[in-house]
Amino acid sequence: MIERYTRPEMGRIWTLENKFRKWLDIELAVCEVLFRRGEIPPEDYKAIVEKANFDVKRIDEIERETQHDVIAFLTSVAEYVGPSARFIHEGLTSSDVLDTALGLLLTEASDLLVEDVEKLLGVLKRRAFEFKDTVEIGRSHNVHAEPITFGLKLAVWYSEMERNRERLLQAREAIRAGKISGAVGTFANIAPEIEEAVCKRLGLKQASVTTQIIQRDRHAQFFSTLAIIGCSIEKMATEIRLLQHTEIREVEEFFSQGQKGSSAMPHKRNPISSENLSGLARLLRGNALAAMENVALWHERDISHSSVERVIGPDSTILLDYMLSRFTRVLDRLTVFPGNMKRNMALTGNLFFSQQVMLFLIQKGISREDAYRIVQQNAMEVWDKGGDLKDELKGDPRVASHMNAEEIDSVFDLGYHLKYVDAIFDRVFGAH
């Protein structure tokens, strides 16, 4: 299932081939800077540039013996380069390569995720305008409140995803950091200007100060941002699930020809994508918590964060790519039932006009407490016995003494609730 919605580009970021290629890019960038500083002889630098390569299977073979991935990688590269390989990794520690490469990989993944969010925003905007004037009842505590439009609901989602885009860009900037500062970050065996030049060549910022590692608050911010985006998707998916209740049925996930909803009940059409997405958001939150646990390491560094990041790096980015793509498809093909929205609004006999009536009575000179009591008593009659709030009010002498029939009719105006829809859309999408 996940392959249907996840782009191959995201998966390729996390291949061993791409990871080791990033490692080699970093080592070659350091060698280039050292060569320009006169610290690597020309003939050796020429050999490094022309011969440097690696073999993934050979690295795995060496690592089985060394139990150290970076050493295995460097040994494989040295087998290609020969004696000149002695200049590779000079003055570096493993984390210089690992952390800088992770910054490159997460930045690369971020770019794809930003594209995903942009696509989702495009669909949200299109469908928001499509249903800008499609009236439905707003609900609070799962109970009818006052009218909104389905387009307004989508505008709220659009605005939230815009904030998520900004969060993602900020997280990308936080994670776009490199480190070439040696064993405990003191530059004892490699000069700070080398780090600056290498990071510039790689398109990264240099971390201003490090221990043996780049500090993991950056990574906690990044994975927390992915989790927040997942929370937004879950929120929207949950709303679709609620609105697809048989008793409500205001929207429905697209149900294709030949699709089956249940092995036992042929009539079923279930919101399976939204349910799937609601569940997957839990994984993103769990991974974010794991990233937070990585912030507190022992002294200048321990290795407890490494195993975690080998899992959550690919898992969270691939998962969010999948979730954004799948939810974009859900919204793009979502079936909307305006007739059912109108039917549901009529269920409570115009009770959603209660606040308008109360405010009108207050304007007529009744205290708020008395106005509330009068309207509530009439509303409770409708709740308990059925009927229509307008008819109840017209039969109440307490109301009749302040409002005639025409005034009561004028208060029951749906346009009153929707008069600022265009203004809200202008605030969200810009003036049209």
* Low-pLDDT ranges: none
Number of strands: 6
As for the number of domains, it is 3
Q: N-to-C SSE series?
A: HHHHHHHEEHEHEHEHHEHHHHHHHH
**CATH fold annotation of the largest domain:** Fumarase C, Chain A, domain 2
Question: Number of helical segments?
Answer: 20
How would you classify the helix and strand content by structural class?
Answer: mainly alpha
**Residue share in helices?**
55-70%
Structural description of this entry:
Helix 9 (about 190-200) links the parallel strand 3 and strand 4. The chain has 3 domains: about 1-90, Fumarase/aspartase (N-terminal domain) (Fumarase C, Chain B, domain 1, Orthogonal Bundle); about 95-180 and about 210-345, Fumarase/aspartase (Central domain) (Fumarase C, Chain A, domain 2, Up-down Bundle), CATH 1.20.200; about 350-410, Fumarase/aspartase (C-terminal domain) (Ribonucleotide Reductase Protein R1, domain 1, Orthogonal Bundle), CATH 1.10.40.30. It contains 20 helices and 6 strands. Helix content is about 65%, strand content about 5%. The chain is mostly helical. The radius of gyration is 31 Å and the shape is elongated. The strands form 3 sheets. The chain has a two-stranded antiparallel ribbon with strand order 1-2. Strands 3-4 form a two-stranded parallel ribbon. A two-stranded antiparallel sheet has the order 5-6.
